[in-house]
Amino acid sequence: MYNHKQKMKIVCPRCGRPTGVMVMPGQTVLRCFPLWCKYCKCESIVSFDGESQRSWSPEPTA
Ligand SMILES: [Zn+2]
Questions:
Q1: Is residue 19 classed as helix, strand or coil in its secondary structure?
Q2: If both were cysteines, with which of 7, 9, 44, 49 could 18 make a disulfide (CB 3.0 to 4.6 Å apart)?
């Protein structure tokens, strides 16, 4: 049921590179998480709904 190996890295929405932030699909939920990217040297707000990563935008287009 709980799988320690089932982790994935949150990807920077700006550059698409994996950051050091790990989440566990099915376990972790992030909402408006301030994600620091060491490559861009800036912060992006991301969300993770438990299955996939969502880029958070102040003006939703969908
Ligand atoms: Zn980046």
A1: strand
A2: 9
> Could you tell me the distance, in angstroms and rounded to a whole number, from the CA of residue 27 to the centre of ligand 1?
24
Q: β-strand 8-11 against 18-23: which pairing, if any?
A: antiparallel
Rounded to two decimals, the pTM is: 0.77
Q: Which two tokens stand for residue 17?
A: 């590179």
Distance CA 40, CA 13 (A): 10
DSSP letter at 27 equals: T
pLDDT in tens, 7-51: 999 999 999 999 999 999 999 999 999 999 999 999 999 999 999
Ligand 1 center from residue 2 Cα (angstroms): 30
Q: How many residues belong to the chain?
A: 62
